[in-house]
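This is your field. Pick holes in the following sequence-structure pair:
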Amino acid sequence: MLDRERILAKFDELEGYQKELAAIAPKSFEEFRQIQKKRACERLLQISVEAAIDVCHLFVAGLRLGLPAEEDDIFEKLEHAGIISSSLKDTLKEMKGFRNILVHEYGEVDDQIVYEAVTTRLRDFDAFRREVLKALEKAEPL
């Protein structure tokens, strides 16, 4: 059974992070390169992706889709179950990979890629929210 309250709480968390990112989004690459701005953007992107991954885990567990052999398997399982589209599955894999770079290779992070994510890729979180909430509504009407 899906833990609707935890899923919705994670979406509230994600929405809060997205609002914070929108509030501090740099207007230029030069502005982004200010250390406080850069680190704040990196951290907010990281925890946004983590919130999305948490929602995916809640769906896999709640729908009893099986234990993933690897973390990327959760996205495959959700696509196979019709929860997310193939394009969203690919986007989520990219997000997870990006998050891993932010967390594990901090010194090697390409500032231009992070800047582009902040300024052009935040809509990916909206697409994620729409698809998953639609699936949640079908599974258990809101």
Summary: The two ends are 14 Å apart (CA to CA). Helices lie at 4-24, 29-32, 35-62, 73-80, 86-104, 111-120, 123-139.
